[in-house]
Amino acid sequence: MAQEKIPSSLDEIVDLFKQARKDRKLSPSQLFIKQAQILNQHESTEYFDHNRTFRTDIYTYKELTNQQLKSYISWRSDYKNSTQRYHRTYKSFINIYTAELVNLIDCKDIKSAYEKLLTLRSKYDYVSYYYNYSEIIKMIDKAIRDFIVFYDMDLDLFKDRLTIEETLLFVFLDIPNKSDEQILDIVYEKLKSSWTVEKFSELSKPLIIKVIRAIDHFAKQKYQKNMAELLFNAVEEKNPYNFFEPLPFEGTLTKTKIDVLPTLKYKKLKDGWFKYQIKSDIIKLLPEILAEIDNIIKNEIYVTNSLPPQLLTADIVEVIKETCQQFFKETLKLKKKDKDQNNLQTYLAYKNLIEHPVSYNFKNSIEAVDKAKALESRFKSILHNNSNSDALFLLTSKVLENVQQSSPVECKTPEFWGFRAPKWIDLNKNQIRAYIYWRTCWRKGLYKRTSECYQIIYISELINLVGCDSPQDALEKLKLFKKKYTFANSQKDLVSTIITDFSRYYDINFDYSDVKTNIKIIILALVVLAILYFVGKKWVLKKK
Question: Could you say which of 286, 337, 469, 519 is the most buried, measured as most Cβ atoms within 10 Å of its Cβ?
């Protein structure tokens, strides 16, 4: 098939390709700029898109076929005219257009080129999730950062383009001279996607500040280093650097040194430009510090089996623990009048309720359930807004521990889907009263049938020693519960596992009589089967 004729301006570009092969003095970037200046005058309203196997690492026109070049002109024309017909395009087209912008092609001035770069990034970041443009976004980000430095723009613009690591180091290299607000803003803003920060409530903010400052002080006192140098292994790295790489670019800098940040600078040496940047492990270690703070807070309320830190040294963990303990002691000294205004005081009131539950004198179960729900609503925000928190369950259980309901309650039976254990928060007030009625009957020896949801809640109460005099008493009640109720096989296995784990946790000598009985039954069944097998075999032989 004969190749379709291309427009005259494209013929000129093809001629430049041929000239470039002969003219060895013309660099690839110079050739690109000449081509861009010619191509800039040409637009097309027709979209050519015949090549489906297009490379993603093309940055110059030289590597495009005639058909691909037509496609690029059409896409760029649509993009410039804001028709937005083609959100998705070849990554190489975006590469080439970015190269045009950094070389100020079709731009009135530096500011205009900068704004077009920001627009390009914004548009393709918007569709990046669907079309996997993450690498393209990284390339544009580098181009924008280099653009600010190379064209001597306001360096405050550069601070808006910092990576998470660069931003955190900017603060953590000089903790004493940073305000509490600066530290908190950087921790919450830059690590907001981390599960650790999402779990934190307002309670933890002042504690985070104290821990960070304590670690920094400890590092200087013992090791004569700041927190970033000691804990995050902050060291300066020197690497060769080419502005706008891998894009073709033609330009020179008169400066020989550019100080962008205390953590980042560029220097021109005999061998070319070099980038001096402080690198660290802050992204790995800072979330672990926050996780350790979170664990300590939770342990102040109820015992957790949280995993120990994997990367923090023992002395740093000790500093965190001591700071947290001191913090809790100091806050207990706050004036009583501040109690309702201070989130931490509310937290400590919650902790006190768990450890030393108030003995309420309720007139009836309605009043008890109202009180339990009110406390639950008040305190759930303290525990990271987690409505399924074990501590919230324990609080409600303590309030309802000795409440009784003498008559049945008509209500819709709560459903148990099996993907997690039901909690009080899942039940409405009437459902809670219906559960209390069943529990009252159970405690009196009237073993009424009930829903799986209520069964799981009752087991949860027992393993938390709610309504039990001792762990041994709870274990006996668990065994009785298993004996009196018939379950689906999976749930029966669950109850057996809970009993075994409970015995190990409280170091109670577990009675394996049920297990031994089951083993005896299995052995007896095997013996019977063996006898039947041999008798049957004998009978078959006799018949023959």
Answer: 286
Cα angle for residues 310, 316, 320 (degrees, 5° grid): 100
Residue-wise pLDDT tens digits, 21-57: 666 677 888 888 888 887 877 777 666 665 555 666 7
Q: Residue 400 CA to chain centroid, in angstroms?
A: 36
Residues 6+ apart with CB under 8 A from 417: none
Using DSSP's 3-state secondary structure scheme, residue 296 falls into: helix
pLDDT confidence bin for 340, thresholds 50/70/90: very low
What is the full DSSP assignment across 90-149?
Answer: -HHHHHHHHHHHHTTTT-SSHHHHHHHHHHHHHHHHHTHHHHT-HHHHHHHHHHHHHHHH
The count of other CB atoms within 10 Å of the CB of residue 216 is 22
Q: Is this model's pTM higher than 0.85 or not?
A: no
* Alpha-carbon gap, residue 434 to 436, rounded angstroms: 5
In angstroms, how far is the first alpha carbon of the chain from the final one? Answer: 83
Both tokens assigned to 490? 């999976």
Q: How long, in residues, is the chain?
A: 544
SS3 at position 274: strand
Angle between helices 282-301 and 314-332 (to 10 degrees): 40
Closest CA to 476 of 456, 499, 453, 497: 499
User: Which DSSP string corresponds to 361-430?
Assistant: --SSHHHHHHHHHHHHHHHTTTTTT-TT-HHHHHHHHHHTTT----S----PPPP--SSS---GGGS-HH
Radius of gyration of the chain (CA): 35
Residue 379's Cβ-count burial label (10 Å; 0-12, 13-18, 19+) is buried
What does the pLDDT look like over 315-337, one tens digit per residue? 888 999 899 888 877 765 554 44
User: Hey, what are 406's tokens?
Assistant: 């003498």
- For 58, list phi and psi in degrees, rounded to 5: -90, 135
3-state helix, strand, coil in the chain (%, to 5): 60, 5, 35
Give CA separation, 295 vs 138, 214, 305, in Å: 35, 18, 9
* Structural tokens at position 12: 């000129």
Query: Tokens 């010619």, residue?
Result: 38
The predicted pLDDT at position 24 comes to 67
Distances (CA, A) of 131 to 72, 82, 158: 18, 20, 27
